[in-house]
Amino acid sequence: MEKKKKPYCTAIVLAAGRGKRMGTKVQKQYLLLAGRPVLYYALRVFQDSEIIDEILLITGKGEEAYCREEIVEKYDFTKVSRILAGGEERYDSVWKGLQETKPEGYVFIHDGARPFIEEKMLERVFQEVQEQKACVVGMPVKDTIKVVNSRCDVTETPDRSTLWLVQTPQVFETELIRKAYKMLMQGRISAEADPSETEKKQEKVEKVYTVTDDAGVVEAMLKHPVRLTEGSYMNIKITTPEDLLIGEAFAQRRQKEGEK
């Protein structure tokens, strides 16, 4: 029996964040963890993965040459086919990457500030996305969550068993995510041109400006179900100085495990 050909998989790695909450002059994705840039770790996993065929790296404007010389060439990330300048918002950056992907296969969208993904995680989400077309990694929350109003009065305590922390990578059939983002960007242009035309348009405006992740775009634009699969509690996003301390410990641990 002929072996089924693996679908083409592209990783879009987002490294255009400004990192205001980190409080450093150096962008958070270039800060060092165990002697290597935060961005290095995720790129290494995608580079070594048999699932990923190509990496598109989205950087901040004016950082393309730095990324090419100090990250891609220095660490021999040969799967990085293009380095693109990101946009003003996250969804602008994702859209730029999606326009450069092949039309077939699957897209893995990942925050470059999440250094601790693993090959097993990619395998799980890749298996799920082939059935569901939209799949993201995450983990059940450990803490009780409270919903508050503008005065910080508690208005609701959701059932913790139904809540997950959503992470990246978020993985989609390429055709599906491109369609969703095209609708999002068209809605954004329409909303900015005339945000008060109709009640229906106002609803679209709210969708455009409240989505915070790629799964949210698929949910809002296409009403397509999204599957959650297990990520890792180590799969943190480096956002604040406290995260950097935790990340340093994780990076040193991974380094030691690699030496064994």
Report the uncertain regions: none
Number of helical stretches of at least 4 residues? 8
Shape: globular
* Main beta-sheet strand count, sense and barrel state: 7 strands, mixed
Give the helices and strands as they follow along the chain. Answer: EEEHEHEHEHEEEEHHHEH
Based on helices, strands and strand pairing, what is the structural class?
alpha/beta
Name the quaternary structure: single chain
In order across it, which strands form the biggest sheet? 5-4-1-6-10-7-11
Task: List its traits.
single chain; 260 residues; alpha/beta; two-stranded antiparallel sheet; 40% helix
Could you write a compact summary of the structure shown?
The chain has 260 residues and is of the alpha/beta class. It is built from eight helices and eleven strands. It starts with 8 loop residues before the first strand and ends with a helix.
Structure notes:
The protein has helices at residues 38-48, 64-73, 90-98, 119-132, 174-193, 199-210, 214-222, 241-259; strands at 9-15, 32-33, 36-37, 54-59, 80-85, 106-111, 134-140, 147-148, 154-156, 164-173, 227-230. The chain has 260 residues and is of the alpha/beta class. The mean pLDDT is 89.
